[in-house]
Amino acid sequence: GEAEGAGGAEGAGEAEGAGEAEGAGGAEINSSPLASTGFYLDHTLFDTKRLEVISRGQIILQKQLIQAFIKHAQPGLEQMYHAIEREDFQMLEQQAHRLKGTSANIGVRLIPQIAAQLEQQAREKTLVKANERLDSLKRQFEKVQAFLLETVNLR
After folding, report:
1. What percent of the chain has pLDDT over 90?
2. What is the C-alpha separation between 135 and 139, in angstroms, rounded?
3. What does DSSP assign to residue 108?
4. Nearest to residue 130, comparing CAs of 140, 120, 139?
5. Which residue from 98, 119, 108, 90 is spatially nearest to 41, judged by alpha carbons?
6. Do the beta carbons of residue 45 and residue 29 sit within 8 Å?
7. What is the mean pLDDT of residues 121-143?
8. pLDDT band at 70; cut points 50, 70, 90
9. What is the pTM of this model?
10. Nearest CA to 103 among 74, 133, 129?
Protein backbone atom coordinates (compact mmCIF):
# COMPACT_ATOMS: atom_id res chain seq x y z
CA GLY A 1 0.00 0.00 0.00
CA GLU A 2 2.69 2.52 0.96
CA ALA A 3 4.81 1.89 -2.13
CA GLU A 4 1.75 2.38 -4.31
CA GLY A 5 0.90 5.72 -2.69
CA ALA A 6 4.47 6.98 -2.96
CA GLY A 7 4.67 6.04 -6.64
CA GLY A 8 1.42 7.84 -7.43
CA ALA A 9 2.52 11.02 -5.70
CA GLU A 10 5.87 10.90 -7.45
CA GLY A 11 4.28 10.56 -10.89
CA ALA A 12 1.75 13.32 -10.25
CA GLY A 13 4.37 15.92 -9.35
CA GLU A 14 6.92 14.86 -11.91
CA ALA A 15 6.66 17.88 -14.21
CA GLU A 16 6.68 20.41 -11.37
CA GLY A 17 9.42 18.59 -9.48
CA ALA A 18 11.72 18.70 -12.50
CA GLY A 19 11.45 22.48 -12.67
CA GLU A 20 12.05 22.87 -8.94
CA ALA A 21 15.12 20.66 -9.02
CA GLU A 22 16.60 22.73 -11.84
CA GLY A 23 15.72 25.97 -10.05
CA ALA A 24 17.37 24.90 -6.80
CA GLY A 25 20.69 24.21 -8.47
CA GLY A 26 20.87 27.25 -10.72
CA ALA A 27 19.18 30.03 -8.78
CA GLU A 28 22.24 32.27 -8.63
CA ILE A 29 21.75 35.59 -10.35
CA ASN A 30 23.89 36.55 -13.31
CA SER A 31 26.83 38.66 -12.18
CA SER A 32 28.31 39.21 -15.63
CA PRO A 33 28.89 42.75 -16.97
CA LEU A 34 25.10 43.02 -17.04
CA ALA A 35 25.18 43.53 -13.28
CA SER A 36 26.42 47.11 -13.66
CA THR A 37 23.26 47.98 -15.61
CA GLY A 38 20.86 46.65 -12.97
CA PHE A 39 19.49 44.09 -15.45
CA TYR A 40 20.00 40.68 -13.90
CA LEU A 41 18.99 37.61 -15.87
CA ASP A 42 17.64 34.70 -13.89
CA HIS A 43 19.54 31.53 -14.90
CA THR A 44 16.52 29.38 -14.03
CA LEU A 45 14.41 31.17 -16.66
CA PHE A 46 16.98 32.02 -19.33
CA ASP A 47 19.99 30.56 -21.05
CA THR A 48 21.85 33.81 -20.49
CA LYS A 49 24.66 32.90 -22.90
CA ARG A 50 22.13 32.43 -25.71
CA LEU A 51 20.46 35.76 -24.99
CA GLU A 52 23.82 37.56 -24.76
CA VAL A 53 24.97 36.08 -28.09
CA ILE A 54 21.87 37.08 -30.07
CA SER A 55 21.79 40.55 -28.49
CA ARG A 56 25.57 41.01 -28.84
CA GLY A 57 25.55 41.85 -25.13
CA GLN A 58 23.29 44.88 -25.58
CA ILE A 59 21.02 45.09 -22.54
CA ILE A 60 18.38 47.22 -24.27
CA LEU A 61 18.13 44.66 -27.09
CA GLN A 62 17.80 41.82 -24.55
CA LYS A 63 14.87 43.59 -22.92
CA GLN A 64 13.29 44.26 -26.32
CA LEU A 65 13.66 40.60 -27.36
CA ILE A 66 12.00 39.41 -24.15
CA GLN A 67 9.22 42.01 -24.51
CA ALA A 68 8.57 40.92 -28.10
CA PHE A 69 8.50 37.27 -27.03
CA ILE A 70 5.91 38.00 -24.33
CA LYS A 71 3.78 40.15 -26.65
CA HIS A 72 3.61 37.41 -29.29
CA ALA A 73 3.48 34.37 -27.00
CA GLN A 74 0.40 35.46 -25.03
CA PRO A 75 -2.07 35.21 -27.95
CA GLY A 76 -0.42 31.95 -29.03
CA LEU A 77 -1.07 30.40 -25.63
CA GLU A 78 -4.72 31.45 -25.80
CA GLN A 79 -5.03 29.97 -29.30
CA MET A 80 -3.54 26.71 -28.02
CA TYR A 81 -6.20 26.47 -25.29
CA HIS A 82 -8.91 27.05 -27.91
CA ALA A 83 -7.30 24.51 -30.25
CA ILE A 84 -7.37 21.85 -27.52
CA GLU A 85 -11.04 22.63 -26.75
CA ARG A 86 -11.94 22.31 -30.45
CA GLU A 87 -9.53 19.43 -31.09
CA ASP A 88 -7.95 21.57 -33.79
CA PHE A 89 -4.69 19.67 -34.13
CA GLN A 90 -3.37 21.82 -36.96
CA MET A 91 -3.72 25.04 -34.94
CA LEU A 92 -2.20 23.38 -31.86
CA GLU A 93 0.76 22.14 -33.88
CA GLN A 94 1.33 25.55 -35.53
CA GLN A 95 1.16 27.53 -32.30
CA ALA A 96 3.28 25.04 -30.34
CA HIS A 97 5.89 25.06 -33.12
CA ARG A 98 5.96 28.86 -33.17
CA LEU A 99 6.29 29.13 -29.39
CA LYS A 100 9.00 26.46 -29.37
CA GLY A 101 11.04 28.43 -31.90
CA THR A 102 10.63 31.91 -30.48
CA SER A 103 11.34 30.83 -26.91
CA ALA A 104 14.39 28.78 -27.90
CA ASN A 105 15.67 31.64 -30.05
CA ILE A 106 15.99 34.02 -27.12
CA GLY A 107 17.11 31.39 -24.62
CA VAL A 108 13.96 30.92 -22.54
CA ARG A 109 14.27 27.66 -20.58
CA LEU A 110 11.68 24.83 -20.36
CA ILE A 111 9.12 26.40 -22.72
CA PRO A 112 10.72 24.96 -25.89
CA GLN A 113 10.66 21.41 -24.47
CA ILE A 114 7.04 21.59 -23.33
CA ALA A 115 5.98 23.22 -26.61
CA ALA A 116 7.77 20.46 -28.53
CA GLN A 117 5.78 17.84 -26.59
CA LEU A 118 2.53 19.61 -27.47
CA GLU A 119 3.60 19.93 -31.10
CA GLN A 120 4.32 16.19 -31.24
CA GLN A 121 0.97 15.39 -29.61
CA ALA A 122 -0.82 17.50 -32.20
CA ARG A 123 0.95 15.62 -34.99
CA GLU A 124 -0.11 12.33 -33.41
CA LYS A 125 -3.65 13.71 -32.92
CA THR A 126 -3.74 12.90 -29.21
CA LEU A 127 -4.71 15.21 -26.38
CA VAL A 128 -3.65 13.00 -23.46
CA LYS A 129 -2.30 15.40 -20.80
CA ALA A 130 -2.33 18.25 -23.34
CA ASN A 131 -4.17 20.59 -20.95
CA GLU A 132 -1.70 19.78 -18.16
CA ARG A 133 1.23 20.48 -20.47
CA LEU A 134 -0.32 23.72 -21.64
CA ASP A 135 -0.93 24.76 -18.00
CA SER A 136 2.73 24.03 -17.28
CA LEU A 137 3.72 26.08 -20.33
CA LYS A 138 1.55 28.95 -19.15
CA ARG A 139 3.06 28.86 -15.63
CA GLN A 140 6.58 29.05 -17.07
CA PHE A 141 5.52 31.86 -19.41
CA GLU A 142 4.06 33.76 -16.43
CA LYS A 143 7.39 33.43 -14.58
CA VAL A 144 9.20 34.98 -17.57
CA GLN A 145 6.55 37.72 -17.76
CA ALA A 146 6.78 38.47 -14.01
CA PHE A 147 10.58 38.57 -14.22
CA LEU A 148 10.43 41.06 -17.05
CA LEU A 149 7.85 43.25 -15.33
CA GLU A 150 9.99 43.37 -12.18
CA THR A 151 13.19 44.05 -14.07
CA VAL A 152 12.05 46.40 -16.80
CA ASN A 153 9.03 47.99 -15.08
CA LEU A 154 6.78 47.61 -18.12
CA ARG A 155 3.35 49.11 -17.63
Report:
1. 50
2. 6
3. B
4. 120
5. 108
6. no
7. 96
8. very high
9. 0.71
10. 74
